[in-house]
Design brief:
Layout (H helix, E strand, L loop, with lengths): L1 H5 L9 E3 L2 E9 L2 E8 L4 E4 L9 H13 L5 E2 L26 E2 L2 E2 L14 H17 L1 H7 L3 H11 L3 H11 L8 H20 L6 H11 L5 H7 L1 E18 L2 E10 L5 E9 L13 E8 L8 E3 L4 E3 L12 H14 L6 E13 L2 E5 L5 E3 L4 H11 L4 E7 L4 E8 L2 E4 L1
Amino acid sequence: MRAERLAGQIFFPTPRRCGTLIFVEISVYTHAVHRIACDISTSRSYCSCPFQPKPCVHAEAFRLFCSRAGATTFEEEKTPPDWLPPDFLPTDLPVGGEPDDFQISGKPVVEEDAVSSPLERMGPGFEDLEIWLLDTLRRGVATAVSEDPDFYKNIATRLADASMRGLSRSMRLLENLPADSSDWPEQTAAVLAEAAMALQAFRRRNHLPPALLRDLEAVVGIAPKKEAVRTEGEPLHDTWAVLGVVEEVVEPPLRQRRIWLLGSGSERYALLLDYAYGGPEFLPGFKPGTILEGELIFYPSAWPHRALASESVKTVSQAVEDLPGYEKIEDMARSCAAALGRQPWLQAFPATLRHVVPFFQKKQFGIADRAGKQTPLANPESVCWSLLALGGGRPITVFGEWNGRTFTVLSALVNERFVPF
């Protein structure tokens, strides 16, 4: 039992007592503490942490610690702590002074009129996230999930209440990730790292470049209005090749469509991102392999790639016959690392790999470049077999999304023939 392992002096170094009440404050991080109390006459316990259900593991561990150590071993106070709720105090105990005007449950009290931007109003949500992350790391992710089936649901709900829809959705998706999945550790670590980076970026928000601040807002779930993007974004007129379209379910009934374009003159990739909730289908258009001409407006970002299509975009009578790209997988990986250095929440890196050979070896599909470097494919098996058939053991050009570990092919070019997947 987790409470048994935590019920030691090392976790509760400075307990105090007042009558039958024993209480302690344990530091969670620079900005927060857990405040825990136990009434040894009734075995009732209290903890200021945001975790549910109650009593939490901290309160259970402290109750065990108190029962083992004995009340007489703790230093006595004349009054109970002023952070305890009134309904927890025994009626025969003296009551302390007024509640602390500066902090409640380890969270700074912020005057409402001092909170202006949507990001600033998410301060309490980030405080909850910080406590949850640190507690998760101490307990261990596997242990925490096994002890509490609603582990991710609880933090997802709190983040949603704080209007942090992006991070809340990430936690909900982790809840549905099968524990026996082969990449469970990698996916879990990636989501927790993304949340931790968002937390640290929020702490340093006054020092972030404006473009990176926009990326932080997007990760948290603050969606800019399209009118603002058209005003503040970067316009770029070019001839655009539609290289790939991906439609997938984010979480029922929310669906996402990603459309990847490549400018012939600028050689810049652009992502058109759409969402559909419930029954409505996505708007038609943007067929893979077609050529468009017109202006795209890029969202402000430290690594601009998401864009809006202006009304000037129209289809032209041309076909995709060749694509610029990387000759080496190693060069693609370096470019991806550079992009992540600028925008650490980048979900997928668009890339074209030229002269690569699809292969199937040791029950694994992959592609190899001329230098012999390989990367596994994340496509369904049917798509992988189609790629092998297209290549026939000869080099081909592929476009897709790279996540740092695997490559997902969205289209291929074989002898000037464009093949979407």
